[in-house]
Amino acid sequence: MTNFTLYGDSISGNCLKPKWTAERLGMPFDWRETSVVAGETRKPEFLALNPWGQVPLAVLADGRTLTQSNAIMLYLAEGSALIPADAYERAQMFAWLFWEQYSHETCIAVRRFRVAFLNLKGDDTDRTLETRGNTALAHMEASLAGRGYFVGDALSCADIALVAYTRWAPDGGFDLGSLPNVRAWIARVENDLGIGTAGFQPATSFG
Amino acid sequence: MTNFTLYGDSISGNCLKPKWTAERLGMPFDWRETSVVAGETRKPEFLALNPWGQVPLAVLADGRTLTQSNAIMLYLAEGSALIPADAYERAQMFAWLFWEQYSHETCIAVRRFRVAFLNLKGDDTDRTLETRGNTALAHMEASLAGRGYFVGDALSCADIALVAYTRWAPDGGFDLGSLPNVRAWIARVENDLGIGTAGFQPATSFG
């Protein structure tokens, strides 16, 4: 008996966020591997479920659907320790989630996709993404000074959302060598989630 | 006696979101007009409050700060009717908030700023923003079919977030003429919020 079905692509950090959340919380679910690159999100049977043609997609037990990685994660995590009980800390968690989608995913995930999957590196777009990504990473490094996690003193949805693409940043050409707080935090969250160590593979491992 | 201080720029839809939310909920606050274009978010006294150098910024009564427009809005709206009580509807609201920051603000707000403030129109970037923005607007039009609001049957944070830049879309060169659902929804939300009619001014009105 599963609570829901999760359509996702294992090479997408966005898709792994709700997957890791459900696993962390011990919620049974069916994972349906759905390759974006292979066009599976554009097939009629998928578009019938999600006209947006995007993963992750959650289909609840009653057939209703949910989109947007961070929204699905928040839905699954409601009432759990992954959402801070304190109102101010909860607002900080939301701030990180919105920042992740606006200022982090748009450069770190995008550059990783271009470099590791499309072999596009060194052009003007790449340099812009590199500059923006390094700014985002530096902000994370400073924010983690003296802290184990981004909000309060425990793992929250903010960490899950941010680790998804940060742990793959080296595959996008980002150097984490001068960011000890970020590196230690990645290892900490990977350990908490039981997802192994991702970083520092060559780009070809994603080919 | 005010609950908090809100630093914001009145020409920024992101800044107006928490302002409208507080007004809607009757929460007393001090508004500190802070011009991005005039460099006021880069002054030392502002950076001392917010090292990110961004508005909106909320400074709570105890001095703690909050960033990110949608996160501040959610903090202010907690426990109010602006956040749906039903868990599924709440998740839908979150999905619209993340979609707004990823797929709407990044084209509709950005194009409006380029066209209305920088007089940049017709270049390659403008055409890309136009295409993306029209896709976002078409999605809103379809989603509003037979509905008064984006989630459930009442005004929520999703509407406040989405209306902020959608009502100014014509100033960015977007034509809402073929989007009757969007136009009716803008008027409905403007009326609910008591903020008057924004749309369809010439670009020079922002000069």
Structure description:
2 copies of one chain form a homodimer. Chain A is built from 7 helices and 4 strands; from the N terminus they run βαβαββααααα. The first copy, chain A, is globular. The longest helix of chain A has 32 residues, at 87-118. Chain A has helices at 13-24, 44-49, 69-77, 87-118, 124-143, 157-166, 180-193, and strands at residues 4-8, 29-33, 57-60, 65-67. In chain A, α1 runs parallel beside α3, α1 crosses α6 and α6 packs across α7 (180-193). Chain A has a 4-stranded mixed sheet with strand order 2-1-3-4. The first copy, chain A, is 50% helix and 8% strand. Chain A folds into 2 domains: 4-77, Glutaredoxin (3-Layer(aba) Sandwich), CATH 3.40.30; 87-206, Glutathione S-transferase Yfyf (Class Pi), Chain A, domain 2. With 207 residues, chain A is of the alpha+beta class. Mean pLDDT of chain A is 94; it is low at 200-207. Chains A and B meet through α3 and α4 of A and α3 and α4 of B.
